[in-house]
Give the backbone structure.
Amino acid sequence: MPWLLLVAQTQAGHNRELLRAQALRALRGPGGVGGGTPVGGSLQQPLDHFDPLEGRVLTQRFWINEEFWDRPAGPVFLMVGGESALSPLVLRGGHVLELARQHGALLVALEHRFYGDSRGPAGPGGAELRFLSSQQALADLASFHLHVTRAWGLSPNHTWVAFGGSYAGALAAWARLKFPHLVSAAVASSAPVRAQVDFAGYNRVVSVALSSPDVGGSPECLAAVSAAFRALDARLRGRRLAEVTRAMSCCHPPREPGDRALLAENVADVVAGTVQYNGLLPAASVAALCRAMTDGRRGSPYRRLGAVVKAFLRRGGQPCTPSSRRALLRELQGPGSAGGSRPWLFQTCTEFGFYPSCEDAACPFSRFQTLRAQLSLCAAAFGIAPARVREAATATNGFYGAARIQAPRLLFVNGALDPWHVLSAGGGRRGLLIAGASHCADMAPPRPGDPPALTAARQDAPRGERAQWGDVGVAKGEWAWP
């Protein structure tokens, strides 16, 4: 969650995962602009780059697409993997493929350690998770740089430009910051470079979007969403569990406090994820959501919310809304935790936080979505106490600089509609904030429904960034931000 998309997941994330998978396909578009087939491979990485006495290794996947490469001097465009499995399709679609065609670039992509098939000796989610961190991932990128340079006969001072979205965007920015001799420039899309434990700002951006006519929202829509979640909370507190189970299509009756927190977050994910990915999916837009939530013919706001959840599950081919914390813990603690749920949760507990709480008056969602409930999962799954989570986030900001990150030829691109933009950086010549754009929207291929500001940003970037990027040279001519 690209170039992967972040999931605001702690106890929940199931419904946001469904949206993210669909959004990833939308970001790639219907196909490449040249039809080149990426070639896959793998390399052995040290399990611990920082301990020479640790002799174990992990196998890490990568892909190469030479379709547009103006060999031998064309630049290298590095697609950074993030918090889920990578596939060769990442090099066959999206806006970066068009950039590669324009600039004669060699396209390369590296899957993040402990996601997908890039696993440690004990397999997915094993005991080696202590070797999962953004710092280890950056060291993987440096090692991959050396591998590609040798295998493809590149010069030591070859031009490399890193691209990434969401957490992978943060990694692209940090690679430029920490390895300026390897990464010549970077484009960080929707990149949350500031760790924050209590990410209450996420839901504040969602509230603004739901009330904004510019994207299909309205004050009436925000009021209806807020009323629906107040009604859900009242039923949960009154233990009207059979009614809630039917209305919200629960997999299990939410009998325990942890069950109610899990349900509340999964239902909120349907609404918040629609804002985050607005415009990437035809059926997942603020306008469509608000039409459903303000349609008085569908009964009360609570009933409308239930109908929205049912429609969401139906589109995703899912039978019900997860609502058992015990079942979630069994999944997270199992040896083959599905997808990237266990490793990403581990990274939020040990580096970032990113927990979207709902404890202030402006939040439109359930008051069961508390910071305490979300932090408790770190303790239950990994034995990590809340104080250690806060210390880890502080250490991450100290190591990378948070939003004060300083590096030349580093461009931050954010959508104003994307809740993650409040944890990103940029401003002035270092960043673009695109009105009406959602999470990683700039990485998708152009489409008719794009916000005008997004279309303009793609067209104006060459002129606006040429002076900043023009000193990154390649043999075929000057590299300038396209």
About this structure: The first strand starts at residue 39 and ends at 46. The chain has 15 helices and twelve strands. The two ends are 24 Å apart (CA to CA). Residues 201 and 422 are 7 Å apart (CA to CA).
